[in-house]
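Example record for the data management plan.
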Amino acid sequence: YQVGIRRANDGGRWHVVVSDTNGGLLRSIGYGESPVWSPTGDWIAYIRHTGYPATRWHLAIVRPDGTGELV
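Corresponding structural encoding:
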């Protein structure tokens, strides 16, 4: 199993990361927050930040391996 979480990094910007349930294998899939898994587990939807500091916000979906992002 995997979980999507957010964590601070890069001077306070939030990363959406995927981790296995034992806390290992952290993989960043983008800058943003509020990750939510699709019912099938094929996608993660999150609010994506662009600009620094975060000045633009977009709804994004991405596969758990970080590929196929749609904004």
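Summary line stored alongside the record: The mean pLDDT is 79.
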